[in-house]
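Possible regression after last week's pipeline update?

I re-ran a chain I had predicted before the update to compare outputs. Posting the input and the new output here so someone can diff against the archived version. Not blocking, just want to make sure nothing changed silently.
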Amino acid sequence: MNSFTDLTLDDSQKAPEEKNDIDCTSEQCKLCKEYLKKKLKDVGMLPASTVTSITANSTEQCNKYNFVRKGEIEKNSSDEDEDDDSSSSSKEIREIEKLKDKKDKILKKIEDHKHHLRRSRRQAALPGTDMGVDASVVGRRFKLSCDNKGVATDGSGLLTLCSRCWAWRELPDNYYPRYMNELVCDDSDGSCLSGYATCGISHRSAYVVRNDSGILNVITLQSGSFCECRVKVRRHFKNLNA
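New output (post-update):
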């Protein structure tokens, strides 16, 4: 999950070290990891008892996440116990080992599923759920950072027409992987072009494994990819689509 990128940032805004430090060995990456942990704690994705360590006298800066750049999260000093760190690390290692044991079997399931889709040219049905606000979305979304419309997010000088958010979606515990990295529309601001158009999420297909009482089934979910301004079929704006 630490490899998930902030989808509200363009490639031009990411430092080379942030792109290449996959193993998170640098001090900057470790600091960003603590910022992310605190953010997940603040939005309710991690329990309130989660210990974070962000020291105010750190010589490094985290430019990996938009919410850090915009100052939406405060630095804090922590005197966390080393035993807690060790226990937490041991649990993470055990979880990683369990996931690795399932990796080959799950990847084969996914490849078989892709082959079936290509052959039959049909998309697997999207299952419903009662979780979250939108019943058509499997799991629950947690927004980590948002950009308001009318803001230039890169050096091109072009403005975004829709407010958008970087979100993580947590799937039910019988799904693998459990988390999806998404870019979605800000549901608190769904209009664009002064109300003559509407913001909508565009999706991409994502293959995940669902454990149905011990039987592993590969299914297709729709993952938020970007937010676009869609002109309504009326008035003069329709004629601009030429």
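Follow-up from reviewer: compared with the archived run. The chain has two domains: 11-80, 123-240. Marking as no regression found.
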